[in-house]
UniProtKB/TrEMBL annotation:
Gene3D superfamilies attached to this UniProt entry: Rod shape-determining protein MreC, domain 1, Rod shape-determining protein MreC, domain 2
Protein name: Cell shape-determining protein MreC
Cited Pfam families: MreC (PF04085)
InterPro entries to which the protein is assigned, alphabetical: Cell/Rod_1, Cell/Rod_MreC_2, MreC, MreC_beta-barrel_core
Record field: transmembrane: 20-40
Stretches the record annotates as Disordered: 286-373
Domain Rod shape-determining protein MreC beta-barrel core: from-to ranges: 132-277
Gene (UniProt): mreC
NCBIfam families: mreC (TIGR00219)
Organism: Pseudomonas alkylphenolica
One cellular component (GO) term of this entry: plasma membrane
GO biological process, one term: regulation of cell shape
Organism superkingdom: Bacteria
Membrane as UniProt keyword: yes
Amino acid sequence: MVVHEERLIKPLFAKGPSLGVRLLVLVVLSITLMVVDARFTLLKPVRSQMGLVLMESYHITDLPQSLWQGVASQFGSRTELIAENEKLKTEALLMQGRVQKLAALTEQNVRLRELLNSSALVNEKVEVAELIGVDPNPFTHRILINKGERDGVVLGQPVLDARGLMGQVVELMPYTARVLLLTDTTHSIPVQVNRNGLRAIASGTGNPERLELRHVADTADIKEGDLLVSSGLGQRFPAGYPVATVKEVIHDSGQPFAIVRAVPTAALNRSRYLLLVFTDSRTPEQRATDAAMAQEAADRQGLPGNAEAAQPGATTVTPAPAPAPAPGTAPATPANPAPVASPAAVPAAPAPAPAPAPAAASGAAATPSRERH
């Protein structure tokens, strides 16, 4: 009876498989699932459903952080916007002042050009281009822009950004063009020091942050901080555009030339939008002809019917009659004969009345009279 009761009593905690067996089963199951998932598409619907379920849990766990970031951005963005607004107002005021000064300088330049009459007034035309590619070769500094031959771009055309010159067009395609930057080892540009007009040649070094001035005399007046601008002597880049700022000048008493290093003013590695400069492509003869035509038109507007008389030095002068020589003597020649105007400058009018002779001519004519006495 006792033995029968002991058989009826069951243990409270049933003993299952060992941990090693469980681990082995789980490993086999995992490998099977990975193989099935990689080789077949049976588990894709299951994965999609599990992704939907887990996405909600992701949102719930990320909710506190999202709320905190939203509150912080509300207060932080207001402060930043106020500060940025004040900064933009200050910059706008400064830019307005610079624009007013630039307008005054432009008007002064126009007046000086009209006064000198050196050439006809031609404003440089620019066109905005966008950078769309960079040459992957680390030893070649070239970029690709979205303007090409169909847009009027020509070989050798200058390219600049908001800070200064960047380079020139060296290859043309119908809708794109390739630009060689100033820092390329094969590129050089004639420059001059803005402070004193000292001329030099700035060459690329292969470093996008450095240019070198070649063959600068050791005694040349150049120092750190000088602004280098294009001189226009190469007939390729327009004059007056900033090129670089002198960073270092090394003088060596044993060398005839100083080592001058400069930093380009243009943001060669950061500029996205560029300017293509369309310079005056006329020959010197064409510019001289246009200048003459412009001057002739200005004279006609000033004095209609007698444009030549408006020019300085075109005053009509009539020679005075010399006194008759005494019998037996040669006619006296005035020492300084009165100037005679060119036929083009003499107006068609009746012959003027005899005017008194100049002082020099009277003195010369009186000399023979004293000799007769």
